[in-house]
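note to self — DONT lose this again. spent like an hour looking for the file last time. sequence + predicted structure for the chain T wanted, 694 res
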Amino acid sequence: MATPRPALPADRFLNRELSWLDFNARVLELAEDDSLPLLERVKFLAIFAGNLDEFYMVRIAGLKRRQSTGLTVRSPDGLTIREQLALVTARTRELVHRHGDVFTKDITPRLEEAGIRIVHWGELAETEVTRLRDYFRDQVFPVLTPLAVDPAHPFPYISGLSLNLAVSVRDPETGAPRFARLKVPNNVPRFVPVGTGAAHGTAAEATFLPLEDLIAAHLPQLFPGLDVLDHHLFRVTRNADLEVEEDRDEDLLQALERELARRRFGPAVRLEVAESMDPRILQVLINELEVDKEDVVQVPGLLDLAALWALYDLDRPELKDEPFVPATHPRLSEGETPKSVFATLREGDVLVHHPYHSFATSVQRFIEQAAADPDVLAIKQTLYRTSGDSPIVTALIEAAEAGKQVVVLVEVKARFDEEANITWARSLERAGCHVVYGLVGLKTHCKTALVVRREGGVIRRYCHIGTGNYNPKTARTYEDLGILTADPRVGADLTDLFNTLTGYSRQTTYRRLMVAPHGVRNGLIERIRREARNAADGRPAGIRFKMNSLVDERIIDALYEASDAGVPVELFIRGICSLRPGVPGLSENIRVRSIVGRFLEHSRVLNFRNGGEGEWWIGSADLMHRNLDRRVEVLLQVCDEQAQRLLENVFDQAMADDVRCWELAPDATWTRLEGRDYQAGLMRLTVAHTNGDA
């Protein structure tokens, strides 16, 4: 009789919110790293701030919404919502102070040494004051609207993420105090150039005045006849997580547009104030915005450092990473001459690795050649996020205008891209494309394109399946993978998938694909358990996963069981990881590593040693509940041997002992290990392959 397996420990899961904050702390560590070029450090300060904004708008907002229901809900790690919020608040305050300190005490002095200064009004020369007074009068004053707060003027609506001045004034005749709110306009540059060279981002010397300082210096003009006593800067973050009630009888676009209008008025979830904020004014804001004291974050120095992107955009190449030009995949060109993507794919699959391989000369060219090719009969594609001037959308519109059948699934519920995607959907419809919005209750997150072409009386299908969005701009900074293939099995699978997305098909099994919400979790658990059986039988076994987030408890438990069976498990996780590695008797065979660097590690790759018959998958799905249960996600089995070798090299390089990275310890702490730059190594390797040197 088999010995029963001992129960898994209750503390085996790490908290996902704290794990995310640990990820953002790794971003902050790059801002603190004085070995990086100065403006790259500024960039990481901006990324940290933007990340934290979204975390509050979505994750903290979600926790607060669940708390308001009054239900006692515990996270998988056993914490109540109240306990999670308390821990998150404490950790956030610690990180915000680190963030502010590195900017004010380290980055700002180094910027000054490099000739980039952020000054205050009292530091300006008289000639600069005169010029900026004219600038205020002509460019800023006309768009300002001071809003009084008194019995006749209720407290005004404060839009999410806007900078605001809380102004105290006094009537000189009666001595009565007054309170007003003044919004810092977001359609005027946050950092106002003090010198003419800075205005064009070209001068070696560039001096800037924060817009709020310029406005504060001119408050008497906005409140004539009153004494301006004081002013304080504050910023509000609101719940921005949409809850669209999907009804088969209602137009989804109309429902979504209604919810987008409501998003502006979501409840406040965070109040950021300067450390010098008057306690009386702070109490007014707390009362009027209906936030708890725990929701107040005091920020050292400037608020909203996401605005530092403006400094990063300065033309100072000596303060940035050396430019990297993505290479055209060697199989997609002959010298400088582009090859037909279709002819190339008839010879075999092509695995492209962005941003090392150019998106424009691979995936984008695939769609553009299909749009222009008279033998192409149909193009079917999913769009989750794309750029504002998307060449992909332009190509699809041109294909439809040329008489091709074009079917586009536009996911209008892609968070924070809803309005842009509604605009794309309507543009595509006007051009004659068939536009659908996915399945009720599910987001379509997969990245797929299918081209149907007539060749000598035979219909052939060409496909792209990737890990990232069809977005040429992010493809230069996001690390992603994609397969271009003419494999008939993949073509048949994508045909079945699109029939499911556009019609009433209920296809759940495929040849070369795993598709969520029906097939990914069970398919992966089955393969994890197969590795455990192989290890028990003395056959080669091993698991390697690369993804953004690992949260799903069932998959984590399967990985624990595989580790207990002796399977070596290597996890390359950029962001959230709820698995606790290295625990004796639970996960001693599991190693977790994170790499945060110049490019955003975004691809999802899964590898099973499979008794020596290695099995490789790439796709769009992170191992989270939302991806596995509430999204249409696709994983593609990679069968091409050359592509498999490239994927294996990605893991070998990332998991090597001499690579700069962070490793997760059993006590949930991340330790930074110094070494060579993994991404720089891939850049050099790609150039060598392109030049035929490797």
